[in-house]
Amino acid sequence: MTTLRELASEAAGCTRCDLYRNATGTVFGEGPGEAELMLVGEQPGDVEDRQGRPFVGPAGRLLDRALADSGISRRQAYLTNAVKHFKFQQSGKRRLHKPPNRTEIMACRTWLESELDVVRPAVVVALGATAGAALVGPAFRVAAYRGMPADLEVGPWHGVLVATIHPSAVLRASGPDSRDRAYEGLVADLRSAVRACRIRSGAS
Ligand code: URA
């Protein structure tokens, strides 16, 4: 049986697409190997790329707060990304995030499949459109899936998918009112994922 440590070490040398050329390194998932909840983001950002850990920048801090408000701590969940290298465009000293394309998402999907197979979470949360597309396919739309638990099979894993917005969509929302509304929506969807976890594990 492959372990997360073995997978992470293999992924550290990944050259399945070109993103490894400019990124500092692979940012693999982290969290308990027996987590019941797995959260999948888009790709590491600038801070994550430098620190080599997922969700440790501004979006990660917001996600930590939203998880706590949903009744689960970050330490109980396994956090990863659909794409494990930071894709960016250099603009002076700044590295501006660029969304991964379908080829990059598909090249990285093997790692996501393996993480699901090893962790075997009851519920996987897609944080935004890229994560949803990686898990469901290119027809995925956040608006069509969000907050509603749906059965999902990815490779040998099967379980429940709950989709929601990406935490950076909350940070990008213009004005405090729409930011609050976006945050409340994120928390409501995460609560739905936590409920689905409890139902799956028989704790209701
Ligand atoms: N955004 C993501 O999708 N993932 C991270 O790890 C950080 C920011």
> Radius of gyration, rounded?
16 Å
The share of residues in helices is 40-55%
Largest sheet: 5 strands, mixed
CATH topology name: Uracil-DNA Glycosylase, subunit E
Query: How are the strands of the biggest sheet laid out side by side?
Result: 2-1-5-7-6
At CATH's second level, what is the architecture? Answer: 3-Layer(aba) Sandwich
Bound molecules: uracil
- How many separate helices? 8
Coarse shape? globular
Total beta strands = 7
Topology order in helix (H) and strand (E) letters: HEHHEEEHEHHEEHH
What is the rounded distance between the termini? 31 Å
Q: Which spans have pLDDT < 50 for at least 5 consecutive residues?
A: none
Features:
two-stranded antiparallel ribbon, about 15% strand, globular, about 200 residues, binds uracil
Description:
The protein is α/β, with parallel strands linked by helices and 204 residues long. It has one domain: Uracil-DNA Glycosylase, subunit E. The protein has eight helices and seven strands, in the order H-E-H-H-E-E-E-H-E-H-H-E-E-H-H. A hairpin with a 2-residue loop joins strand 3 and strand 4 (94-97). It is globular and about 45 Å long. The two termini are 31 Å apart. Bound molecules: uracil (URA).
